[in-house]
Design brief:
This protein is α+β, with helices and mostly antiparallel strands. The longest helix is centred in the C-terminal third of the chain and has 54 residues. The chain is globular, with a radius of gyration of 28 Å. The structure holds adenosine-5'-diphosphate and magnesium ion (MG).
Length: about 725
């Protein structure tokens, strides 16, 4: 397999010849039922009804829905679509769709139909999707319901086109079975909470939204190489493989010239993204060999999340054409950087003010500080929930390793803002360490304008006019951490406003009340601020002293989802019911178990059938050789007997440790409690993987390269 794969890769001529239109301004949104298309295909009334629903959350009545369906169908048919589907995001992490044709037989002919019923609500028999006990199988109904705030789009495959309608996915009783429904609830919550705060400062603000820009990191490997690695095929990551002589130590990949074959891929991806309205703006090589990044312009959070999910789908699709495979796993290769998704998050008013960007007068600076400090407090109080919201078997490999933030949740704000906050606490007495000048909140805009502070090790970094949640996994559906962050910040803003209003009611002046409350909030949240190196051992120790959480594995991190703070943040604010939280907790634990179980099985298969056979083969070659030398009365050098000993020892160790891992799996499966089983899988199964791998990787270095079957790291990462 390995030799053939190598040959295939080397024989690939660059077959890329993109003949389509490359005018991005023309292509942008061409496959989206966007504002322009709606104006063209909808009656004025229907158009206004959808617009109102998007802008003001008003429901679209049945009659209007009928009009919209009819216009949407005309548009989709004009684009060559033959089928339609509700497009949703179940708790599997991927997107789901079930296609129906527009056409139906009628009196011996075919007619195209698409009614309001088909648009607004459907009942896919999606009984096999995870529900954590919310749906009994005898009543396994799940409904998808149209989300007009995310526009419908056409998904193109080589041979056909499908109209996709973004929807939420809920159970018969209305419980959320997806990522979108809670996200939408958290958006309403934070809209209201932020708008209420704005009323102190900006009278004209009537609504607020969350802006999100998701930087997406990924690896590309050749398809032939990928297919020759069962671990990549089954688990999305390499379970074995010795580090190549050259990894990322030369820093020669990061921001380097993009290899032609990769460039062609990126270009076509950008074209496909533009058609779907995904505003990809940035592309570059990332730190690890074979690793890249793309980033769109920020958008409204609901759309940004949908676009990111869609992007992950089309990344795969376009890669196929270029004989690449995209790896979205957080840690596909040991020893080099993993991939994340940096979620750049901010709050915007309907009047166009970025609330994490200070203005030009004391009033807007105080508004900035209000949002800024309360966001820090929200992180402080909800750190465990945020940690749980990004927890997965694959992200466990990344958090705390090579260029990835640790599992300790903290915020970085930069030295200047640290000075500002200190000055704020001490009424302007603190001074700027660099130039000894006293700085106060009026100077925030100037400070931020030339803010060059960056801390790539922080999980939650303030970067001038937004916070960047850097700990999100590359394969994660961002809706989950964004729901957590939105709800946490909204909850804190509500608490803050209640306190301020109380003080005002007792006769305190509004500004004084806000300043006093902000100081209290800041003092109680300061523990979560950290400016230093998040990768260092000292930080882990310091964080422990501060009482910050540092749960390194998913099995134990998930409990926060059903803890006291989760009830306050989620349940009391109507984002999740208790039952929904428990269901999610259960689903995520099960997913964790299954992932480790699959990895354990694949690792076992590889050791027994890919690693030991060639190792034994080489061993017997050596043994025969030694025997032949002895028979001929020739001296046997130390090298050969030494090799025999080493290989033999590593084979034995790999085999016996794998046997033990298989036993541990069987034992863990006996746990009837899901959480206990997940913890057992973590400590008794997963924790043995590296130990097994150690011996296998030694064998890779000792056994004749000619008979080694698995493509090696140097080939996966460098051969193009
Ligand atoms: P940086 O290099 O500082 O991280 P970039 O300008 O490259 O910043 O932006 C990274 C991501 O942050 C992009 O997706 C960008 O659109 C997004 N972004 C910029 N401003 C905002 C904002 N106000 N709210 C949300 N995301 C933003
Ligand atoms: Mg960035």
């Amino acid at each position: 397999m390995r030799r053939e794969a190598l040959k295939t890769v080397l024989s690939r001529k660059n077959k890329f010849s993109y003949k389509g239109d490359v005018s991005f301004t023309k292509l942008y949104n061409s496959n989206v039922f966007d504002d322009l298309a709606m104006r063209d295909f909808l009656s004025k009334e229907a158009y206004e009804s959808v617009s109102k629903s998007v802008k003001e959350g008003q429901t679209i009545n049945r009659k209007m829905a009928e009009h919209v369906a009819s216009g949407m169908k005309q548009w989709a048919l004009s684009k060559g679509a033959s089928h339609y589907t509700h497009w949703f995001q179940p708790l599997t992490g991927s997107t789901a769709e079930k296609h129906d044709s527009f056409w139906e037989p009628s009196n011996g002919k075919a007619v195209e139909k698409f009614s309001a019923n088909a648009l607004v609500q459907q009942e896919p028999d999606a009984s096999s999707l995870p529900n954590g006990g919310l749906r009994n199988t005898f009543e396994a109904r799940g409904y998808t319901a149209w989300d007009p705030s995310s526009p419908a789009f056409i998904h193109e495959n080589t041979t056909g086109r499908t109209l996709c309608i973004p929807t939420v996915f809920v159970s018969y009783n209305g419980e959320a079975l997806d990522y979108k429904a809670p996200l939408l609830k958290s958006i309403s919550l934070i809209d209201k909470a932020t708008t209420d705060i704005c009323k102190y400062f900006l009278k004209k603000v009537t609504s607020c939204s969350v802006s999100l820009g998701i930087e997406q990191e990924y690896f590309l490997v050749d398809e032939a190489m990928f297919n020759a690695r069962p671990d990549l095929v089954m688990c999305g990551r390499t379970l074995l493989g010795h580090a190549p002589a050259k990894g990322q130590q030369m820093d020669d990949h990061y921001f380097g010239a993009i290899p032609d074959r990769v460039f062609n891929y990126m270009f076509e991806l950008e074209i496909e993204a533009a058609k779907l309205g995904i505003p990809l703006k940035t592309r570059h090589n990332e730190v690890a060999p074979g690793q890249y990044e793309c980033a769109p312009m920020f958008e409204d959070v609901n759309l940004a999340v949908d676009h990111n999910q869609l992007l992950m789908d089309i990344m795969d699709q376009v890669a196929c054409k270029h004989h690449f495979k995209v790896l979205l796993h957080e840690k596909p290769f040991a020893g080099i950087n993993g991939s994340g998704k940096h979620n750049n998050w901010s709050l915007l008013t309907n009047t166009g003010v970025n609330l994490l960007s200070p203005g030009n007068d004391p009033n807007s600076n105080l508004l900035f500080l209000t949002i800024f400090i309360n966001t820090i407090k929200a992180l402080h109080d909800n750190a465990d929930i945020i940690r749980a919201s990004i927890a997965s078997a694959s992200n466990d490999h990344r958090l705390g390793a090579n260029e990835a933030p640790p599992a300790i949740i903290s915020a970085f704000i930069g030295s200047k803002l640290t000075d500002v906050l200190n000055a704020f606490l001490e009424d302007g007495k603190a001074s700027d360490k660099d130039d000894k000048k006293s700085i106060n909140i009026d100077q925030i805009p100037e400070i931020l304008r030339d803010n060059t502070d960056r801390n790539r090790t922080s999980p939650f970094a303030f970067t001038g006019n937004k916070f960047e949640l850097r700990a999100v996994g590359s394969s994660t559906n961002s809706a989950q951490p964004m729901t957590a962050l939105n709800s946490a910040v909204a909850n804190q803003l509500i608490i803050f406003k209640t306190a301020v209003d109380k003080a005002i009611a007792q006769g305190t002046d509004q500004k004084a009340a806000i300043v006093k409350e902000l100081k209290d909030v800041l003092r109680s949240a300061q523990n979560v601020l950290f400016e230093g190196n998040n990768y260092s051992e000292e930080w882990a120790k310091e964080a422990e002293k501060r009482g910050l959480g540092n749960v390194k594995n998913t099995a134990e991190a998930l409990r926060a989802y059903i803890g006291k703070q989760a009830i306050e943040t989620f349940v009391n604010n109507g984002i999740f019911t208790k039952e929904e939280l428990h269901a999610r907790f259960e689903i995520m634990l099960e997913e964790y178990i299954k992932k480790i179980q699959i990895e354990g099985r694949v690792l076992g298969d590889l050791v027994y059938t890919y690693i030991i056979p060639p190792s034994i083969e080489y061993l017997s070659t050596l043994a025969l050789n030694v025997k032949a030398l002895k028979d001929a009365g020739l001296p046997v050098g130390e090298t050969q007997s030494d090799l025999i000993k080493q290989i033999s020892a590593h084979i034995d160790a790999a085999k016996s440790k794998t046997d033990k891992m298989v036993d541990a799996r069987k034992k863990a499966n006996n746990d009837t409690d899901t959480e206990k089983m997940a913890i057992a899988y973590h400590y008794t199964v997963k924790e043995t993987f590296d130990d097994i791998r150690y011996h296998v990787d030694k064998l890779e270095q000792l056994v004749d390269d000619k008979i080694w079957e698995l493509p090696k790291y140097r080939e996966l990462l460098f051969t193009k």
